[in-house]
Structures
1.
Amino acid sequence: MQRLAPALRQDNVPLDLISLIKTILAATKEISFRVSQAHLGGLMGSTLDENIQGEVQKKLDVVANELFKDILLESGFVRAISSEEEDTSVAGDQNGKFVVSFDPLDGSSNIDINSLIGTIFSIHEAIPDMDAEDPGQFQQQGNKQVCAGYVLYGPSTMLVMTTGSGTHFYVLDRTHGGYLLVERNVQVPKDTQEFAINMSNQRFWQEPMQNYINDLVAGDTGPRGKNFNMRWIAAMVGDIHRVLTRGGIFTYPADSKKPEQPYKLRLMYEANPMSFLIEQAGGLAMTSTGRIMDIDPTDIHQRVEVIMGSSNEVEACLSYYK
Ligand code: AHG
Ligand code: MN
Ligand code: MN
């Protein structure tokens, strides 16, 4: 099996980006270790703090964020970072060529039940001559990402990454301490009979999503004429990994549960990187009105509607909005 750096060189990834990716992966190896220690390291449960989005921070959210932030800011490759767990962007090295957005631990509610969690990251080139302190660095569309990926701390620690030449799977080999390429150019099947949505929000969805899901649930007695299965891991990393592996549609649609907050998932460090991975694997990554990666970001913590996965199924869902 091929090691990471040769695999990236084969895709003509520039050397400075390879160095940054290696830096990111060093942090994920440390997070993977801390996650595996769990109770033994005193890392279960919550802190007494909330992040800027009003969510209670788990101890592992904070540890993962500090590890990721420190290693990136010390690397010299990074002009600035933004993170789910940081109020604003944080300046790095003015000569750094890249900016990195990340969700240090996705699926935090799974930490205490020893279930799937992961780290999501998105890399853009820094805007030339823009100050490292300027959050405007992050006002770049998802289609300008030069790399995106996640690390899943599952039964095996897996890296799923794209630099724009397909989406590839890697597994952390603890015998030599590096990631090995296990599957090149993953393809999301165009059709599926599996959907992922938090059904408990059903009464808060808009009518098109209510109608679409009703037709999926009706199975072979409804207009779709086939049965659908449902899965919900409550960690986007886990749900998207399943979609990349065997197809499916994943959605977190608009809802009216909290009228001031119609969407749940965050554009910069959840929706955009996952969209890049899904599109590079032949899937679609949309809102009900357009492509996620074409959105002009205005805030590092902005939220967005997400409908992504198997292309024919995403189209089928969107047809209900027309
Ligand atoms: P995070 O743990 O980083 O805050 O993200 C959780 C997100 C996402 O991973 C997942 O798909 C979704 O929230 C789960 O939402 P529900 O709590 O509604 O199931
Ligand atoms: Mn998340
Ligand atoms: Mn998180």
Note: The first strand starts at residue 46 and ends at 50.
2.
Amino acid sequence: MKFFVDTANLEQIREAQDLGILDGVTTNPSLMAKEGITGEVNVLAHYKAICELVDGDISAEVIGTDFEGMIKEGQALAEIHENIVVKVPMTKDGVTAIRWVTDHDIRTNCTLIFSAGQAILAAKAGATYLSPFIGRIDDMNWDGIELIAQIAEIYTIQGYQTEILAASIRTPLHIVRAAEAGADVVTCPLSSILGLLKHPLTDIGLAQFLADHKKANS
Ligand code: G3P
């Protein structure tokens, strides 16, 4: 399973990269706005800076909502770097745009996925990645992980090549459960990735080892 970090914050991207386990980065318009990145020139420059930091797939989202706008933006984003994956929302125009850019050798990440039906359409359109938002499904008292498992089963039965990218991850346990459910990729806040490191018995065990070593060597 690949690990992407879900942020536009360069410091956090660098920290995830330094951990040595990072395979890519995802962003969205909310995450770009959170970092104060505004205006087309700055947005494109920021994506370029991310591509220069991480040698992996970098999802960059279109803002346009109509077919023409999405393919124009998608082409401009794809020109930044070969690792750019154009993120397109699951709408009627979005599906048509995914088909079009895929036919023009541009890779895509179909975002805002909340149902298996949407996942089937995105795969048929040729999306490279599919982003079910598991945390937001959990927010609605539904089980986001169940959707990952359902999509994984369908994709296996049908032989679809689209990779399942579990998004809207909120906790380390989401990462573990997404892995169990068959996600190909998780995109997570840095805090959830770092949360995987933690176990009190590891801390207690290490303290004991160091204490025993100190006693034996003093
Ligand atoms: O990858 C999608 C993600 O950024 C959305 O996360 O926590 O806003 O639902 P969240």
Note: Residues 200-216 form the longest helix (17 residues).
3.
Amino acid sequence: MNSLAKITAHGSYVPEKIMNNQDFEKIVETSDEWIQQRTGIEERRIANEDEYTSDISYKAVLDLQEKYQVDISDVDMIINATLTPDYKTPSVASYVQAKLGLKNAGALDINAACAGFTYGLNIANGLITSGQNKKVLVIGAETLSKITDYTDRGTCILFGDGAGAFLVEYSEDETSFIASSAGSDGDKGHNLYSSELSETMFGEDLENPGYIVQNGRGVYKWAVGNVPKIIEATLNKANYKKEDLSWFAPHSANARMIESICDRSGIERDKALMSLKYYGNTSSATIPLSIDLAVKEQKLKKDDLILMVGFGGGLAYASTLIRWTI
Ligand code: COA
């Protein structure tokens, strides 16, 4: 008997408070024009002071349940991808497990920054196909506003808060998962970090403890150079060509960066699904939020071939080539 893993539902949640580019003009020296031109971002959502990653993760799962009327009472694993957990311990996933009252679910957080959601999906596929689990919730959720320095114009305009969730279930006859790749260029990790302490990393001083610090140019260059290779490697594993893709769902960090990745990879720009225009860079949540928007816009059809590529802090990456099974 086959043990296959199938995506059966998805949901999302974003905080109510909107911060648009004009709001940034009031707090740092920037302009709506600069932000739109360099990033494509128009607005982002900001969590309330007492609203944490577990709260928005939980709400994304409620949205999933409401949209698809799926029974999640027998979920046996919750994977929360996040770099902004409420606490070091308990995990966000444990909070979500308690809030949902899922008595039989294991719970763990993973941190692969902006690649967290695609790592999470691939782990869920592995858990199900190996027979360990039958119903896995994969959540990508961030409250990046809590670690954003709103005096640093180079980073504060980029980030936002949000959550997305997928349900991955055991199936005997249908799989969503076709091929995946993952890796990390850890020696370049100092280009994007957030540390509690002011220390050194690979001999370089760490700045601004508690907040996100980024060498924007460094990350940009790495991403446009490497993501096309990840795309190629993943497609090659399954003997697919770029032309076969229905959609490309990259980590939604910067529209210019994604356009450049598309051009270098030979993927038509209008196949790229993005969430950054409305939500900014929400790290592990960008990909499920892009999928959610695409569903709302009625772009996705059953059996569409979608390549998701998460990349960022680490500098780590993970891709997953899926067949849309909803
Ligand atoms: N508004 C106006 N000017 C700004 C600005 C802002 N918000 N942020 C930076 N600048 C200025 C800089 O101070 C610099 O000025 P100077 O020439 O007088 O020194 C100038 O713009 C160029 O700065 P630079 O950092 O080289 O800009 P850039 O073209 O690389 O754009 C990013 C900056 C952050 C938009 C861009 O590097 C980027 O998006 N990188 C990838 C980041 C990313 O996606 N990270 C997440 C991956 S997971």
Note: Residues 30, 34, 38-39, 114, 153-154, 157, 214, 216-217, 219-220, 251, 253-254, 257, 281, 312 surround coenzyme A (CB under 6 Å).
4.
Amino acid sequence: MLHTPLCDLLGITYPIIQGGMAWVATGELAAAVSAAGGLGIIGAGSAPPEAVRQEIRKVRERTDRPFGVNIYYMSPYVEELVDLVCAERVPVVTSGAGNPGKHLPQLKDAGVKVIPVVASVALARRLERLGVDALVAEGMECGGHIGEIATMPLVPQIVDAVKIPVIAAGGIADGRGLVAALALGAAGVQMGTRFICATECTVHPNYKQAVLKAGDRDTVVTGMTGHYVRVLKNKLTRQFEELAARGATWEEMDRLGTGKLRAAVVEGDVEYGSLMAGQSAALVREIKPAVAIIEEVMAEAETVISSFARLVRG
Ligand code: TUI
């Protein structure tokens, strides 16, 4: 069985963590991934702490396995969320779209393992010095808010720069991707897009169908809040392109984007909603339970690794 230091660090069976996707990664999904032996993560997004507390309850009602909460650093509730995860003794926190450095002492004192998501070598180095437990190195193939570097060059550079375990993310949706990540020196993978199509994921069925239908060229990067966001192409992204062509300000872009992720996830608006998804959407072909996704990825990875032995001669 494939086992890495990440499994020991987190007390999980398989080196697979689920992306902490805002609106998408609810307690139901996180519980299913954790119960299946991966690390399920609640995506706090911009939700108020009380709502996140309910999602933590949902996980604890369904499984005793470790799980995590992703804190999105552009949320207006970051301080309250840090207090909440400490009070609730959440086993793992991942962070996105910002630097969680100033909260590390509080999180570590509460026994929370901290795994920031980074998209650059400089931030990886800084956070290792501050004492984080592991890092997610997220390439620009992933969905949602993205950095500038692709997974293939980013992961080995971060692996070379730090001693703590590195988890690869961006463009990974199957066992081949897991093996590729391990070859780059990662100790595991984070998958987001693949888990949108988990049976337990509570997004609107239209969202899941849009991911299933996506082909290789069906994602695009749009600008928002001075940041870049990868989504599936639709009428909303054409509106973004028109605004950009007119030289619109970030404020105008922001106004267009406001509430659109909710519209996609809750109302199933696939035309004007923000369908955040990574380039691996084209690799996602069916809806199945989280446990079946994880078993398939692991079986595929083991087959690939076994087949490698035949490549080496002499
Ligand atoms: O956070 C993500 N992905 C996300 S968050 C999100 S929610 C959203 N909703 C509406 C509009 C826009 C976003 C959707 N997708 N990924 C983790 C990630 N973090 N990728 C890159 C970074 C990052 C970027 C800069 C982390 C730190 C950072 O540095 C800031 C600093 O202070 O140095």
Note: The two ends are 26 Å apart (CA to CA).
